[in-house]
Amino acid sequence: MKKSIALLLALVMMFCLILAGCGEANEAPADNAPADNADIAEPAETADEGSASGEVTNISFASGGTSGTYYGFTGIVAQVLNQELADIMNITVESTGASKANVQLVDAGECNMAIVQNDVMYYAYSATDMFEGESAVESFSAVCSCYPEYVQIIAKPDITSIADLKGKNVSVGDAGSGCEFNARQILAAYDISFDDIAVTNQSFADSADSLKNGTIDAAFVVAGYPTTAVTELATTYEFNILPIDEEHAAALQSDYSFYTYGSIPADTYSCVSEDVQI
After folding, report:
1. Burial letters 82-99, b for 16+ CB under 10 A, else e
2. What is the value of pTM for the model shown?
3. pLDDT band at 2 (very low <50, low <70, confident <90, very high)
4. SS3 for 193?
Protein backbone atom coordinates (compact mmCIF):
# COMPACT_ATOMS: atom_id res chain seq x y z
CA MET A 1 0.00 0.00 0.00
CA LYS A 2 1.15 3.52 -0.56
CA LYS A 3 0.35 6.92 0.86
CA SER A 4 1.51 10.41 0.10
CA ILE A 5 4.05 12.70 1.65
CA ALA A 6 3.42 16.39 1.86
CA LEU A 7 4.95 19.59 3.07
CA LEU A 8 3.46 21.81 5.74
CA LEU A 9 4.07 25.48 6.34
CA ALA A 10 2.55 28.15 8.51
CA LEU A 11 0.72 30.72 6.43
CA VAL A 12 3.36 33.44 6.62
CA MET A 13 6.22 31.14 5.64
CA MET A 14 4.14 29.63 2.88
CA PHE A 15 3.44 33.14 1.58
CA CYS A 16 7.15 33.94 1.70
CA LEU A 17 8.07 30.78 -0.20
CA ILE A 18 5.38 31.26 -2.83
CA LEU A 19 6.53 34.82 -3.51
CA ALA A 20 10.23 34.05 -3.49
CA GLY A 21 10.51 30.51 -4.72
CA CYS A 22 8.01 29.83 -7.44
CA GLY A 23 9.31 27.61 -10.21
CA GLU A 24 9.21 24.10 -11.54
CA ALA A 25 9.14 21.46 -8.86
CA ASN A 26 11.99 18.98 -8.75
CA GLU A 27 11.01 15.32 -8.79
CA ALA A 28 11.84 13.23 -5.77
CA PRO A 29 15.21 11.50 -6.15
CA ALA A 30 15.26 7.76 -6.75
CA ASP A 31 15.87 7.21 -3.04
CA ASN A 32 12.43 8.66 -2.44
CA ALA A 33 10.08 6.04 -3.71
CA PRO A 34 6.41 6.64 -3.71
CA ALA A 35 5.21 8.22 -0.56
CA ASP A 36 1.75 9.55 -0.10
CA ASN A 37 1.96 11.51 3.12
CA ALA A 38 4.44 14.28 3.63
CA ASP A 39 3.91 17.88 4.66
CA ILE A 40 5.93 20.87 5.59
CA ALA A 41 4.65 23.10 8.34
CA GLU A 42 5.82 26.26 9.91
CA PRO A 43 4.49 28.64 12.53
CA ALA A 44 4.83 32.16 11.26
CA GLU A 45 6.29 33.64 14.42
CA THR A 46 9.28 31.29 14.45
CA ALA A 47 10.83 32.20 11.12
CA ASP A 48 13.46 34.92 11.31
CA GLU A 49 12.08 37.97 9.57
CA GLY A 50 14.21 39.70 7.04
CA SER A 51 13.22 38.87 3.49
CA ALA A 52 11.39 42.19 3.18
CA SER A 53 14.40 44.10 4.58
CA GLY A 54 17.00 42.36 2.46
CA GLU A 55 18.20 40.09 5.25
CA VAL A 56 18.39 36.32 4.94
CA THR A 57 15.54 34.35 6.57
CA ASN A 58 16.73 31.27 8.48
CA ILE A 59 14.39 28.28 8.19
CA SER A 60 14.54 25.06 10.20
CA PHE A 61 13.33 22.05 8.20
CA ALA A 62 12.27 18.95 10.20
CA SER A 63 12.88 15.68 8.34
CA GLY A 64 13.42 12.21 9.84
CA GLY A 65 16.15 9.75 10.75
CA THR A 66 19.37 9.88 8.75
CA SER A 67 18.80 6.39 7.28
CA GLY A 68 15.34 7.20 5.88
CA THR A 69 14.21 8.93 2.71
CA TYR A 70 12.85 12.03 4.47
CA TYR A 71 16.33 13.13 5.49
CA GLY A 72 17.83 12.64 2.04
CA PHE A 73 14.86 14.22 0.27
CA THR A 74 14.73 17.32 2.47
CA GLY A 75 18.49 17.66 2.17
CA ILE A 76 18.20 17.90 -1.62
CA VAL A 77 15.27 20.34 -1.37
CA ALA A 78 17.28 22.52 1.04
CA GLN A 79 20.36 22.38 -1.16
CA VAL A 80 18.48 23.51 -4.27
CA LEU A 81 16.56 26.29 -2.52
CA ASN A 82 19.64 27.52 -0.68
CA GLN A 83 21.49 27.77 -3.99
CA GLU A 84 18.67 29.46 -5.88
CA LEU A 85 17.44 31.74 -3.09
CA ALA A 86 20.63 32.36 -1.12
CA ASP A 87 19.97 36.09 -0.93
CA ILE A 88 16.67 35.68 0.93
CA MET A 89 16.67 32.34 2.81
CA ASN A 90 18.85 29.66 4.37
CA ILE A 91 17.30 26.26 5.17
CA THR A 92 18.83 23.97 7.79
CA VAL A 93 17.66 20.34 7.77
CA GLU A 94 17.07 18.77 11.19
CA SER A 95 17.14 15.00 11.83
CA THR A 96 14.02 14.12 13.84
CA GLY A 97 11.67 11.30 14.82
CA ALA A 98 9.71 11.97 11.60
CA SER A 99 6.00 12.61 11.06
CA LYS A 100 4.40 12.90 14.51
CA ALA A 101 7.44 14.57 16.02
CA ASN A 102 7.53 16.95 13.05
CA VAL A 103 3.92 18.05 13.54
CA GLN A 104 4.70 18.70 17.21
CA LEU A 105 7.91 20.59 16.41
CA VAL A 106 6.06 22.86 14.02
CA ASP A 107 3.19 23.36 16.45
CA ALA A 108 5.66 24.25 19.23
CA GLY A 109 7.46 26.73 16.99
CA GLU A 110 10.72 24.79 17.14
CA CYS A 111 10.83 24.14 13.39
CA ASN A 112 9.50 26.20 10.51
CA MET A 113 8.91 23.45 7.98
CA ALA A 114 8.43 19.68 8.13
CA ILE A 115 7.84 16.64 5.98
CA VAL A 116 4.90 14.54 7.23
CA GLN A 117 2.85 11.53 6.14
CA ASN A 118 -0.59 12.61 4.94
CA ASP A 119 -2.36 10.26 7.36
CA VAL A 120 -0.38 11.60 10.33
CA MET A 121 -1.31 15.12 9.29
CA TYR A 122 -4.96 14.03 9.30
CA TYR A 123 -4.61 12.39 12.74
CA ALA A 124 -3.12 15.59 14.13
CA TYR A 125 -5.79 17.85 12.66
CA SER A 126 -8.65 15.60 13.79
CA ALA A 127 -7.08 14.49 17.13
CA THR A 128 -7.49 10.80 16.23
CA ASP A 129 -5.31 7.66 16.27
CA MET A 130 -1.81 8.65 17.46
CA PHE A 131 -3.16 12.06 18.52
CA GLU A 132 -6.23 10.67 20.24
CA GLY A 133 -6.80 12.30 23.63
CA GLU A 134 -4.72 15.33 22.64
CA SER A 135 -5.83 18.72 21.40
CA ALA A 136 -6.29 18.99 17.65
CA VAL A 137 -3.32 20.59 15.94
CA GLU A 138 -4.42 23.31 13.54
CA SER A 139 -1.29 25.45 13.45
CA PHE A 140 -0.05 24.27 10.07
CA SER A 141 -0.91 24.50 6.40
CA ALA A 142 -0.22 21.90 3.72
CA VAL A 143 1.92 23.16 0.88
CA CYS A 144 2.26 20.26 -1.51
CA SER A 145 2.40 16.51 -1.97
CA CYS A 146 6.04 15.50 -2.46
CA TYR A 147 6.06 11.86 -3.53
CA PRO A 148 4.32 8.53 -2.87
CA GLU A 149 5.42 6.40 0.07
CA TYR A 150 5.17 2.62 0.21
CA VAL A 151 4.60 0.28 3.14
CA GLN A 152 7.42 -2.18 2.52
CA ILE A 153 7.31 -5.28 4.73
CA ILE A 154 10.69 -6.98 4.53
CA ALA A 155 10.96 -10.50 5.92
CA LYS A 156 13.14 -13.59 6.19
CA PRO A 157 13.24 -15.74 3.03
CA ASP A 158 10.99 -18.42 4.56
CA ILE A 159 8.21 -15.91 5.27
CA THR A 160 6.09 -15.27 2.17
CA SER A 161 2.81 -13.84 3.47
CA ILE A 162 1.65 -11.23 5.95
CA ALA A 163 -0.48 -13.98 7.50
CA ASP A 164 2.80 -15.76 8.36
CA LEU A 165 3.78 -12.92 10.72
CA LYS A 166 1.51 -14.17 13.48
CA GLY A 167 3.71 -15.29 16.37
CA LYS A 168 6.84 -13.73 14.83
CA ASN A 169 9.23 -11.02 16.01
CA VAL A 170 8.38 -7.92 14.01
CA SER A 171 9.83 -4.41 14.03
CA VAL A 172 7.05 -1.88 13.43
CA GLY A 173 9.16 1.27 13.28
CA ASP A 174 9.86 3.83 15.96
CA ALA A 175 7.36 4.04 18.81
CA GLY A 176 4.55 6.46 17.99
CA SER A 177 5.66 6.78 14.38
CA GLY A 178 3.42 6.76 11.33
CA CYS A 179 5.09 3.49 10.40
CA GLU A 180 3.89 1.91 13.65
CA PHE A 181 0.30 2.95 12.99
CA ASN A 182 0.47 1.72 9.40
CA ALA A 183 1.77 -1.62 10.66
CA ARG A 184 -1.13 -1.88 13.10
CA GLN A 185 -3.66 -1.06 10.37
CA ILE A 186 -2.28 -3.50 7.80
CA LEU A 187 -1.90 -6.35 10.27
CA ALA A 188 -5.50 -5.77 11.40
CA ALA A 189 -6.67 -6.31 7.82
CA TYR A 190 -5.23 -9.84 8.22
CA ASP A 191 -6.85 -10.25 11.67
CA ILE A 192 -3.50 -9.90 13.40
CA SER A 193 -3.03 -7.53 16.34
CA PHE A 194 0.13 -6.41 18.09
CA ASP A 195 -0.78 -8.96 20.78
CA ASP A 196 -0.27 -11.69 18.18
CA ILE A 197 3.34 -10.74 17.42
CA ALA A 198 6.46 -9.88 19.40
CA VAL A 199 6.67 -6.13 18.73
CA THR A 200 9.96 -4.25 18.60
CA ASN A 201 10.31 -0.54 17.86
CA GLN A 202 13.36 0.14 15.74
CA SER A 203 14.54 2.59 13.12
CA PHE A 204 14.79 1.40 9.52
CA ALA A 205 18.56 0.96 9.81
CA ASP A 206 18.31 -0.94 13.10
CA SER A 207 15.50 -3.09 11.67
CA ALA A 208 17.68 -4.03 8.71
CA ASP A 209 20.55 -4.98 11.02
CA SER A 210 18.26 -7.00 13.28
CA LEU A 211 16.77 -8.88 10.32
CA LYS A 212 20.24 -9.72 9.06
CA ASN A 213 21.35 -10.82 12.53
CA GLY A 214 18.27 -13.00 13.00
CA THR A 215 16.88 -11.19 16.05
CA ILE A 216 13.67 -10.27 14.21
CA ASP A 217 11.70 -12.05 11.49
CA ALA A 218 10.28 -9.05 9.62
CA ALA A 219 10.15 -5.27 9.62
CA PHE A 220 7.80 -2.56 8.39
CA VAL A 221 9.51 0.19 6.41
CA VAL A 222 7.27 3.06 5.32
CA ALA A 223 9.28 5.15 2.88
CA GLY A 224 9.92 5.95 -0.72
CA TYR A 225 11.74 3.27 -2.66
CA PRO A 226 14.51 2.39 -2.92
CA THR A 227 15.05 3.00 0.79
CA THR A 228 18.69 3.39 1.77
CA ALA A 229 18.58 0.97 4.71
CA VAL A 230 16.84 -1.71 2.62
CA THR A 231 19.17 -1.23 -0.35
CA GLU A 232 22.18 -1.70 1.90
CA LEU A 233 20.62 -4.80 3.47
CA ALA A 234 20.10 -6.35 0.03
CA THR A 235 23.85 -6.28 -0.65
CA THR A 236 24.53 -8.87 2.08
CA TYR A 237 21.19 -10.53 2.89
CA GLU A 238 18.31 -12.01 0.88
CA PHE A 239 14.81 -11.11 1.99
CA ASN A 240 11.23 -11.07 0.75
CA ILE A 241 8.96 -8.07 0.41
CA LEU A 242 5.56 -9.33 1.48
CA PRO A 243 2.70 -8.63 -0.96
CA ILE A 244 -0.76 -7.39 -0.04
CA ASP A 245 -3.43 -9.14 -2.08
CA GLU A 246 -6.33 -7.22 -3.58
CA GLU A 247 -8.90 -8.62 -1.13
CA HIS A 248 -7.03 -7.41 1.94
CA ALA A 249 -6.08 -4.17 0.21
CA ALA A 250 -9.76 -3.45 -0.45
CA ALA A 251 -10.62 -4.13 3.19
CA LEU A 252 -7.87 -1.78 4.30
CA GLN A 253 -8.98 0.95 1.92
CA SER A 254 -12.58 0.71 3.13
CA ASP A 255 -11.38 1.76 6.59
CA TYR A 256 -8.57 4.09 5.57
CA SER A 257 -9.15 5.95 2.35
CA PHE A 258 -5.66 7.48 2.26
CA TYR A 259 -4.18 4.14 1.14
CA THR A 260 -3.78 3.35 -2.55
CA TYR A 261 -2.58 0.16 -4.24
CA GLY A 262 0.80 0.01 -5.93
CA SER A 263 3.87 -2.13 -6.54
CA ILE A 264 7.59 -2.30 -5.94
CA PRO A 265 9.19 -2.93 -9.35
CA ALA A 266 11.44 -5.93 -9.88
CA ASP A 267 15.13 -5.28 -9.16
CA THR A 268 14.43 -2.24 -7.01
CA TYR A 269 16.42 -4.29 -4.52
CA SER A 270 18.98 -6.78 -5.80
CA CYS A 271 17.34 -9.78 -4.12
CA VAL A 272 13.80 -9.03 -5.35
CA SER A 273 13.50 -10.24 -8.94
CA GLU A 274 9.74 -9.78 -9.51
CA ASP A 275 7.24 -6.95 -9.06
CA VAL A 276 5.64 -7.00 -5.61
CA GLN A 277 2.05 -5.77 -5.25
CA ILE A 278 1.60 -3.75 -2.07
Report:
1. eeebeebbebebbbbbbb
2. 0.73
3. low
4. coil
